Amino acid sequence: MFAGRTLEIVAGFSLAFGIFPRWCAAALFAFLVPATFVSHSFWLAAGTSQFQGQLINFYKNLAIWGGLVFIAEPRISLRYRLQIEYGLTPPPH
Protein backbone atom coordinates (compact mmCIF):
# COMPACT_ATOMS: atom_id res chain seq x y z
CA MET A 1 0.00 0.00 0.00
CA PHE A 2 2.91 2.35 0.73
CA ALA A 3 4.35 1.75 -2.74
CA GLY A 4 1.01 2.55 -4.39
CA ARG A 5 0.58 5.78 -2.48
CA THR A 6 4.17 6.77 -3.17
CA LEU A 7 3.68 6.13 -6.88
CA GLU A 8 0.51 8.20 -6.91
CA ILE A 9 2.16 11.13 -5.14
CA VAL A 10 5.47 11.16 -7.02
CA ALA A 11 4.02 10.45 -10.47
CA GLY A 12 1.12 12.83 -9.84
CA PHE A 13 3.39 15.75 -8.95
CA SER A 14 5.76 14.90 -11.80
CA LEU A 15 2.82 14.84 -14.19
CA ALA A 16 1.51 18.15 -12.85
CA PHE A 17 4.89 19.82 -13.28
CA GLY A 18 5.62 18.23 -16.66
CA ILE A 19 8.55 16.07 -15.58
CA PHE A 20 8.54 12.94 -17.77
CA PRO A 21 4.77 13.21 -18.35
CA ARG A 22 4.47 10.17 -20.63
CA TRP A 23 6.33 7.89 -18.24
CA CYS A 24 4.35 9.16 -15.27
CA ALA A 25 1.04 8.75 -17.09
CA ALA A 26 1.98 5.21 -18.11
CA ALA A 27 2.99 4.34 -14.53
CA LEU A 28 -0.23 5.78 -13.11
CA PHE A 29 -2.26 3.92 -15.73
CA ALA A 30 -0.51 0.64 -14.91
CA PHE A 31 -1.32 1.18 -11.24
CA LEU A 32 -4.85 2.47 -11.68
CA VAL A 33 -6.26 -0.31 -13.88
CA PRO A 34 -5.88 -3.18 -11.39
CA ALA A 35 -6.61 -0.86 -8.45
CA THR A 36 -9.93 0.09 -10.04
CA PHE A 37 -11.05 -3.49 -10.48
CA VAL A 38 -10.03 -4.42 -6.94
CA SER A 39 -11.38 -1.33 -5.17
CA HIS A 40 -14.51 -0.48 -7.15
CA SER A 41 -16.06 -3.81 -8.08
CA PHE A 42 -19.61 -2.55 -8.49
CA TRP A 43 -20.78 -5.89 -9.88
CA LEU A 44 -20.25 -7.46 -6.44
CA ALA A 45 -22.30 -4.73 -4.79
CA ALA A 46 -25.38 -5.21 -6.98
CA GLY A 47 -28.55 -4.86 -4.96
CA THR A 48 -26.86 -3.17 -2.01
CA SER A 49 -26.68 0.43 -0.89
CA GLN A 50 -23.03 0.62 -2.01
CA PHE A 51 -23.77 -0.13 -5.67
CA GLN A 52 -24.28 3.46 -6.81
CA GLY A 53 -21.12 4.74 -5.12
CA GLN A 54 -19.00 1.90 -6.50
CA LEU A 55 -20.38 2.45 -10.00
CA ILE A 56 -19.69 6.19 -9.89
CA ASN A 57 -16.13 5.66 -8.68
CA PHE A 58 -15.54 2.97 -11.31
CA TYR A 59 -16.62 5.33 -14.09
CA LYS A 60 -14.56 8.15 -12.55
CA ASN A 61 -11.47 5.97 -12.74
CA LEU A 62 -12.39 4.97 -16.29
CA ALA A 63 -12.37 8.66 -17.23
CA ILE A 64 -8.97 9.05 -15.58
CA TRP A 65 -7.72 6.11 -17.68
CA GLY A 66 -8.71 8.01 -20.80
CA GLY A 67 -6.82 11.11 -19.71
CA LEU A 68 -3.71 9.12 -18.85
CA VAL A 69 -3.77 7.29 -22.18
CA PHE A 70 -4.13 10.64 -23.94
CA ILE A 71 -1.03 11.93 -22.18
CA ALA A 72 1.00 8.72 -22.52
CA GLU A 73 0.32 8.13 -26.23
CA PRO A 74 2.61 10.39 -28.29
CA ARG A 75 0.82 9.90 -31.60
CA ILE A 76 -2.27 11.78 -30.48
CA SER A 77 -0.40 14.77 -29.12
CA LEU A 78 -0.63 18.21 -30.69
CA ARG A 79 3.08 18.18 -31.52
CA TYR A 80 2.74 14.93 -33.47
CA ARG A 81 -0.28 16.19 -35.40
CA LEU A 82 1.47 19.44 -36.31
CA GLN A 83 4.58 17.60 -37.47
CA ILE A 84 2.90 14.84 -39.43
CA GLU A 85 -0.19 16.48 -40.88
CA TYR A 86 1.06 20.00 -41.56
CA GLY A 87 4.84 19.76 -41.51
CA LEU A 88 4.96 22.34 -38.72
CA THR A 89 6.89 22.24 -35.50
CA PRO A 90 5.72 24.09 -32.40
CA PRO A 91 8.09 26.51 -30.67
CA PRO A 92 10.43 24.93 -28.08
CA HIS A 93 9.44 25.07 -24.45
| Number of contiguous helices | 4
String of helices and strands: HHHH
The unreliable regions are none
Major sheet details = none
Q: Helix- and strand-based class?
A: mainly alpha
General form: elongated
Average pLDDT taken over every residue: 87
Q: Give the beta-strand count.
A: 0
Helix content: over 70%
Q: Which percent band covers the strand fraction? A: under 5%
Taking Cα atoms only, what radius of gyration do you get, to the nearest Å? 17 Å
- Distance between termini? 36 Å
What are the main properties of this structure?
mainly alpha, 0% strand
What does this structure look like?
This protein has 93 residues and is mainly alpha-helical. It contains four helices and no strands. The longest helix has 22 residues. The mean pLDDT is 87.
Furnish the topology, listing elements before pairings.
Elements: H1 2-17, H2 21-39, H3 51-72, H4 78-86
Summarize, please:
With 93 residues, the protein is mainly α. It has helices at residues 2-17, 21-39, 51-72, 78-86.
